[in-house]
Amino acid sequence: MELDEKKYLYLLLLIPIVVCVFLFNMYWKRKKQREFGDLEMVKKLSPERSVFKPVLKLSILLLAFASIIIGLVNPKIGTKMETVKREGIDIVFAVDVSKSMLAEDVAPSRLEKSKQLVSQIINSLGSDRIGIVAYAGSAFPVLPITSDYSVAKMFLQSMSPDMVSSQGTSLDEAIRLSSTYFDEKSKTSKLLILISDGEDHSEGAAAAAEEANKIGMKIITIGVGTEKGGTIPLKENGIVRSYQKDQDGQTVITKLNQEGLKTIAKATKGGYVYGGSTKEVLEYIKNALNNIQKTEFESTQMADYQSQFQWFLGFGFLLLFIDIFLLERKTNWIKELNLFNEKK
């Protein structure tokens, strides 16, 4: 399903506002009735007034309003699956989710900055297929190679240090796991975009990069953080409770290691870019992608999308038509049934 005009979804926020106004109006009327006189006496003076009907009218009105808004959004539903030919490359994003990525020397934090960079890169892609890997002391597959960018961004936002039980930063594990995402026999160009602060607590990252180069994988590294470094805040419910300490009880200062990331990229004739400026990163990635050969491949996707707005608009206007003839006084034949235990 696709939503053609998502901007109209914000109009749904008016529904709770209308409900609050209605409840306040009910409260105000009840208050004024008490000031006027005894409530039981007021009810006797207006025997045809229904307590249930105003609520029913409001419910119908809100349902009609919601239906019309959804109609304006214009949901589209694909009616068939078809195989389409696309031209692009396979890209795997390896995102460092170690605790050092919680440092806030880059706003709002290194990890959140990394997510922003990956999300913006995905937005700039065309027909490329993408996958996602998370890593710290070990690597974890988050999303296999796919052409569904919306799903990829959804998984991306859920990434956190809690995903990986083994802490530290093992760049070689990230490279090796990422290489398994690619089909060695495929002629499709292979690119790994590795985002990290470069603090590698393992050995062999350069060797892993050389192995990746043998299967034709190119690595672009993006450094996130500052060389001055920063502390690692430990939060509970968004509040900083303490800071990460080492075995000697000293507060840990984590720093960006650009040289290690440059060494990895150089081993595959890739490149390194500092992630401080989103604009510069996007320009660098764009130029890099333009110099990588695109390959034609097939993918299956939902196609032949058809608009469904007419059903929602029709239902909404039907409810508005019903609401016009729905009076707030008691309905005689329903009153006889006394379904709501209203006094006659």
List its traits.
24% strand; 3-stranded antiparallel β-sheet; 6-stranded mixed β-sheet; alpha/beta; 11 helices; single chain; 344 residues
Describe it.
This protein has helices at residues 14-36, 39-45, 52-73, 110-124, 149-157, 171-179, 205-214, 258-267, 278-290, 309-325, 332-337; strands spanning 2-3, 75-88, 90-96, 129-135, 139-146, 190-196, 217-223, 230-231, 233-236, 239-243, 253-254, 271-274, 295-307. The strands form 4 sheets. The protein has a 6-stranded mixed sheet with strand order 5-4-3-6-7-12, sandwiched between helices. A 3-stranded antiparallel sheet has the order 1-2-13. Strands 8-11 form a two-stranded antiparallel sheet. The radius of gyration is 30 Å and the shape is flat. It is of the alpha/beta class. Helix 3 packs antiparallel against helix 10 (309-325) and helix 7 runs parallel beside helix 8. The longest helix is centred in the first third of the chain and has 23 residues, at 14-36. The two termini are 50 Å apart.
| pLDDT averaged over residues | 83
- State the oligomer: single chain
Shape: flat
Q: Unreliable stretches, pLDDT < 50, 5 or more residues?
A: none
Work out the strand percent.
15-25%
> Which class best fits the helix and strand makeup?
alpha/beta
Domain VWFA: 90-292
InterPro entries: Aerotolerance_reg_N (IPR024163), UPF0353/GerABKA_families (IPR050768), VWF_A (IPR002035), vWFA_dom_sf (IPR036465)
Protein name: VWA domain-containing protein
Transmembrane segments: 7-28, 55-73, 309-327
